[in-house]
Amino acid sequence: MRAGAAPPVASPAVPGPYGQFGPYAPTPAGTPHAAHTPPPYGSGASPYATPTTPVPVASGPRRRPALIGAALTAVLAAGVFGIVQLLPDGNSGDDKAKGGAATASATPPARDASSAPAPKASAQKADAPRGSMMTPGNVRTALEAFKKQTGTTTFVDMTLYDGYILASIPTAAGAETVDSWQYRDGVASRTGPDGTVEEGEPLIDMAAVNWDALPGLLEQAKKDLKVEKPTSRHVIVDPWMMDQAPSIRTYLSDEYGRGGYVLWGIDGSLRKVYGS
Fold this sequence. Notes:
By secondary structure, the protein is α+β, with helices and mostly antiparallel strands. The chain is built from 4 helices and 10 strands. Helices cover 23% and strands 22% of the residues.
């Protein structure tokens, strides 16, 4: 047998008497043929698929007893059905009443609207900042919230988005370990560990950043990057990777993927434009 070829399948033997109807057994009247089940392996047939050729049905006088028997069965069934219809149902009025009561008791009671659970209260605080978080006032509000939780405004880095602010903050003054923090909906919360401070990596006092210049930096970035209608924007404050000097990066892009970022000093002075 050739390697990889499917094993031959023996044809199933078809039992039946050899007589006037050949080597096939007659099929009783009214017996439906089994529906063909398509092979489960895509368009190719399975080597073990059910044969699709139907077994021929012999015709001849031997089918007549089956037809007569079927007709007689139908007549008897009709007669029995008529007799049953004439007989009383055998149920008393009390039984019917009990059945009605059982049906009524099985119906679940209507739900009281007052018992429905109240919707969960929003996690947003009443005094949460409104509008984008990339405004001087909202950034300072977030810094105050971080300081209440950590005792410091000296961070490894901070990233501003319109809806929230992320920060990497040392676990304690002079500590090597760093935690990740988030300010969203007026709440500052720790989100988990954030590694360690690299040797020689400077920290930035975020309270010393010229946040009042931020709106102007974002507008100037639109002109420098030639992105009139930005669809995505964020701001990163961290040590610049080239010289480790504290810096601000304003990122902008539009729906066509055009954009880039502008590098600024934390005092708002322009350093370099990195456009697409």
